[in-house]
């Protein structure tokens, strides 16, 4: 049992040691957690990726996302944060929300295929057990196995 507990502790410590710090902003939209990161390019070059974001087609959701991210990525687009593209306006503008340091603005902000801009994209966060949860489960299994052996020895006597 001591070997099992030692192994579980070693695995838990190794998990903590190799965990990378998050380089993206975490937000919640409509009860779903997303990891937001950025890409740079023109709207036309990135359109297939930008149109897959959860806020595309919903200016209120784009504004909510931009507000949650705030200044996490700095201000790469002429003193505003990354653009949360939510649609294309007539004739050639990208409609987007962006944080400007004090509030979130929403407007036609970028020309579709002229300027390279920094855009926000999102990936849904999949829940993964934390290292402490894994350690607890390992300890419970080790304790259960040891208790079962001890109970088996008592029954044999």
UniProtKB/TrEMBL annotation:
Domain of life: Bacteria
Signal peptide limits: 1-21
Alphabetical UniProt keywords: Signal
Classification via NCBIfam families: cyano_PEP
Protein name in UniProt: PEP-CTERM protein-sorting domain-containing protein
Origin species: Crocosphaera watsonii WH 8501
